[in-house]
Design brief:
With about 150 residues, the protein is mostly helical. The protein is built from four helices and two strands; from the N terminus they run ααααββ. Strands 1-2 form a two-stranded antiparallel sheet. Strand 1 (about 140) and strand 2 (about 145) form a beta hairpin. Helix 2 runs antiparallel to helix 3 (about 75-95) and helix 2 runs parallel beside helix 4. The longest helix has 29 residues, at about 40-70.
């Protein structure tokens, strides 16, 4: 199977995005605000939590996939992926409050650390050669290498 770690974390991210979206929908029914935030702080917080998630998740998933393809450690990627998902859950919960709080701050800081760490790892793979050698030859549809 190609990219099992990234596929799993991407599936978790999809579920997390649905959870964030459902919180917005529930808030819309509670506040009767069907478009925008209607000046409601809770709605704004929930909307920003989802938007913020969508701003970071693609970069994390793309970097994870490329690092996994380049031969990066699956064990480390599992850990980073789990930390990213946990950080985004914490951030989403923290954005429900009216004032800044530890969940929001920790979620944001850990997300930044994950993104910076993945970026650094990706650059190290490219410029310091810490990658598995890429097989030469032609990769067929059944994923066998011939050449």
């Amino acid at each position: 199977m190609i990219l099992p770690v990234t596929l799993t974390i991407a599936a978790a991210a999809a579920v997390l995005n649905l959870w964030l979206a459902m919180r917005i929908v529930r808030g819309r029914f509670q506040t009767k605000v069907m478009t925008g935030d209607g000046g409601d702080a809770m709605m704004l917080g929930r909307m920003r939590a989802q938007a913020n998630f969508i701003e970071y998740a693609p970069f994390v998933l793309i970097l994870m996939a490329l690092i996994e393809l380049a031969g990066g450690s699956a064990t480390v990627l599992w850990g980073i992926g789990a930390v990213f998902v946990a950080a985004r859950i914490a951030h989403g919960l923290g954005m429900g409050g009216k004032t800044p709080n530890i969940l929001r701050a920790a979620g944001a800081l850990v997300t930044w650390a994950v993104l910076a760490g993945l970026a650094g790892w990706a650059l190290a793979l490219v410029y310091y050669g810490y990658a598995s050698p890429v097989p030469t030859g032609v990769i067929t549809l059944d994923a066998t290498v011939r050449g």
